[in-house]
Amino acid sequence: MFAEATEVALKSGWFLEHAWVIPVIPALSFFLIIFFGKRMPKKGSEFGVASMLGALVFAGGAAYQWIQRVNGAPEGAFVSPVVKTWTWWQNSGISFGIGQHVDGLTVAILLVVAFISTLVQIYSLEYLRGDRRYTHFFASLTLFSAGMLNMVVAENMIQLILGWEIMGLCSFLLIGHWWEEGANSRAALKAFFTTRTGDIGLLTGTAILFFSANEWTTKTLGVSGFSIRGLSSWALSGDPGHAAITMGAVALFIAAIGKSGQFPLHTWLPDAMAGPTPVSSLLHSSTMVVAGVFLVARLYPVFFKGMDILGGSANFIVVIGGITIVIAALLAFVQTDIKKVLAYSTVSQLGYMMMGLGAGAWLPAVFHIFTHAFFKACLFLGAGSISHSSSHHSFEMKKDMGGLRKFMPITFGTWIISTLALCGVFPFSGFFSKDEIIDNVGHNGYNVFMIVGLAGAFLTAAYMTRATYLTFFGQPRGASAGEHHEEESHNAHATHDDHADHGHDTHDAHDDHASHGPRESGWLITVPLIILATLALGSGFLNAAPFGEKWENFKKWVEPSAEVVSPTGIAYVVGGVGEARVASDTPTDSTVVPAEVATDSEPVAIEDRAVSDSEGEAHSETLMATTASGEDSHSTEAVHHESPCGTETPEQGVCMAPQIHHAPFKWSKAAMSMLIVLAGFLISLFMCIQLYEKKNKKFVGLTERNKALGFGYKLLVNKYYLDVLYEKIIVRSIAHPIAGAVYSFNQKVLDGVVNGTGTTAKRIAGWVYRNIDQRVVDGAVNGTGSAAHGAGSALRPVQSGKVNQYGALLFGAAAIGALVLVIVNT
Amino acid sequence: MLVNQFLILAAVLFCIGVYGVIARKNAVLVLMSIELILNSVNINLLAFSMRNGSLDGHTFALYIIAIAAAEVGVGLAMVLLMYRNRRSIDLDELSEMKG
Q1: Among A117, A685, A667, A662, which residue's Cα sits nearest to residue A423?
Q2: What is the rounded distance in angstroms from the CA atom of residue A590 to the CA atom of residue A215?
Q3: Which residues pair with A156 in a beta bridge?
């Protein structure tokens, strides 16, 4: 078979074949921390940091071997993912496994997650020193990373859901880390319930796709309808019905909306700032919120077909993404809390990723996950550094910050680099990903959304300038100026992690808080900042489209090739256990590859053949010709660069990825977006100076004088009234009528029945009392009474009131009963 | 498929659970022991379901898991109330049911 031949040519390696170890390391470490953490000298944090370092080493090894594998493959050929499965559950013909599905996307995200998690854990060593639940914090943080890593390597949807839900649980635990504060535990609950609302979509979508795809995947590939590779190739095979795949894709996208904070379920993300800053950093950069984007990128063929990406003028994903970009960016303007500005900025950037995915810009969107993780983690850790060392655990920009650039040079420098990266300024990393998204969205015909993207870039530049200005320029205010806040400010801003109040009370390391002025943080905080800032500056060059093909390494390594491959060739199955063995043993069934094809060993030839098929007449001759001579296949290669994947049904073999075109890079377009960003900087800077520095009468209080602006301001401050809608209207309109209906049913129907029964019973009882009871029964009762009295005093010791004894009696009786049953039956 | 190992495992779990219910004084531990008992039943159901190749046992096990979750919710609520009223969850002190 040609598939085997290509696989022999493709390199694999120990790390690639054992990528499943990566989530296992932190998962084991979680248990070590839980059971032994408190007894360790460092309270369990050493397990967390060590396990993340281990995961990082493994992920690095896997990434290196994947690059070797891609580089060793022929140009443009499909590089099959490295798959390994064990059967987890099977019964009555249904089974699903657990294992790994490692391809370029997996490797890239694994690397990012392991890397950011490591840095965040190192940072937390300092940030949470002396915290009351230090050990449990590290346990949850480690499990959180384990969940994300598990989701990324997942071989099938069930395993993916497992990781997804672990993350949901851990985000609840971590956001509510300081749960003594009512607002924090409310935020944790809100995050949990909002994402759960979306998760219903994940379960529904998985079920829909499984029942639609299982038959085809079992027959053609020998894998279950849960497996990622099965679903991907099924979606492009022409087998799925329109309704099934559309409903499946919409349901899955609802899950992504909930998890990735897309409109209209984004409301939990800013509230999630109640957690400790390292948590916000991890949650917002590489785990949790990226999960939704990752889901869409992972099952891209399903969304590609289900949402008809590239087919119509607009689709669900691109519209949601576009709305999210703008509304979140606008909300960032009215926040006074630095972490909330960053939270809304994350929501907005996730909107870019979703919009990119929805518009067929798969690679730029995935690359944006990659770059965004570094600069957003850096920004959050920078905000944490400010609150830790300068503003006494306050995150209020207007009240407690300002002028910090002199006191915190390292934090300031890393912040500026990350801000420029976030705004997409050349040559910082955000430029190479965000600009590519905007470019490709336009290139694929979504012109409206290209304008939305550019508007988002303008807004991003403007709100980040405002935040930077308020934090680092001007005069120090409030806590940064040495004032110590009294109780009322804590009460007013109870949502923030002012954990000086309760987190550190067992520890005296921070007792000098009230006295010190703003200063730079310790090296455990600054070193992660510097590393992240370096990557925020440099990671863009992994896929620097402006410098030509040679620089587009990320594209080469990560983007799956849209080739038609044989059903056995879509995965390199390691070990071949469980269901995977079926895949390699029974090659094809319905889409049988003709015998003459099977003699060939060139994957390029398959592509040619499929295309020549679609050209129509006399294809069998062409087929013979192309298979017969290698020259032919090479000469036709240049002509038929198009792959049928995504647009039409592959007639032989299967596709794993749709054919997507990339927009050619143009400096003119880049210059235009740079100008827009620059305009954002300048206008915002001007406004900031006028408003906060000179207190210009023309601008200060404008929202109170101008009605339209006042309305907009009020709308933004109230977050578009979405929280009101959810809590007051939706929850009330559903929960209250139910409660009311139950109450009235109870009052009218049940009580009526009960009362009616009562009166009837009373009448009957009266008669019985007069006629029977008095005369007949009483005599018997008196006799029985004395008998019962005697029995009662005999049995009284049994009724000891001890629950355990009751339990023992219960089980004793059950055992005797079982024994009797056995004896009777035999 | 050897059902024996599953049955032995289930029996061991069941015995541990019964021991916990009878011997422990802490209400939470008693609840945990009840969970063990329920899960030993689950293992039995799954073992036989696997041997017979039917999904019935799995379905029952899923129901049991769901009901066990509800049961533990009620149980923990009772423990919480107990703790609020008496500042203790020691079952030995709880002998108001004495006849």
Answers
A1: A685
A2: 11
A3: A227
3-state secondary structure of A277: helix
CA distance A44 to chain B (A): 26
pLDDT at A702: 65
For residues A552 and A541, give the distance between their C-alpha atoms in angstroms, rounded to a whole number: 8
pLDDT in tens, A568-626: 777 777 765 433 333 333 333 333 333 333 334 344 434 443 433 444 333 443 333 33
Domain count, chain B: 1
Helix (H) or strand (E) holding A97: strand A94-102
Chain A residues with CB-CB distance to B22 below 8 A: 804, 807-808, 811
Q: Which residues contact A140 (CB under 8 A, 6 or more apart)?
A: A170, A173, A174, A177
Q: What is the reported pLDDT for A642?
A: 60
Residue type, A98: I
Q: Which domain range does residue B36 map to?
A: 1-86
pLDDT grade, residue A517 (50/70/90)? low
| CA–CA dist A69, A444 (Å, integer) | 31
Task: Find where tokens 């929202």 sit.
Answer: A703
Q: Is residue B75 part of a domain?
A: yes
Instruction: Please tell me the distance from the alpha carbon of residue A157 to that of residue A228, in angstroms, as a whole number.
Output: 7
Q: What is the pLDDT of residues B55-84, one digit of tens each?
A: 888 889 999 999 999 999 999 998 898 888
In a domain, B99, yes or no: no
For residue B1, how many other CB atoms are within 10 A of its CB?
A: 9
> What pTM does this model have?
0.74
Inter-residue contact A281 to A380 (CB < 8 Å):
yes
Q: Would B92 be classed as within a structural domain?
A: no
Query: Where residue B23 sits, what CATH number does that domain have?
Result: 1.10.287.3510
With CB atoms and an 8 Å threshold, state whether A811 touches B21.
yes
What is the average pLDDT across A355-374?
A: 87
Helical ranges in A473-571 per DSSP H: 487-492, 523-538, 553-558
Cβ–Cβ gap A807/B21 under 8 Å: yes
Using CB atoms, pick whichever of B49, B58, B99 lies closest to residue A799: B99
Nearest C-alpha neighbor of A606 from the set A653, A660, A656? A653
Helices (H), A299-361: 300-306, 316-331, 338-358
Judge: A801–B97 Cβ closer than 8 Å, yes or no: yes
Interchain CB distance below 8 Å, B99 and A811: no
Strands A654-655 and A564-565: antiparallel
Q: How distant, in Å, are the alpha carbons of A154, A461, A675, A699 from that of A682?
A: 46, 9, 10, 16
Which residue, among A141, A155, A169, A63, has the nearest Cα to A575 in the 3D structure? Answer: A155
Convert the pLDDT of each residue in A478-487 to its tens digit: 666 655 544 3
For the record, the structure tokens of A84 come out as: 């390994």
Inside any domain, residue B38:
yes
Measured between CA atoms, the residue of chain A closest to residue B50 is A91
Which residues in chain A (86-145) have CB-CB distances under 8 A to chain B?
91-92
Query: CA-nearest residue of chain B to A794?
Result: B99
Q: What would the two tokens of residue A630 be?
A: 């290698």
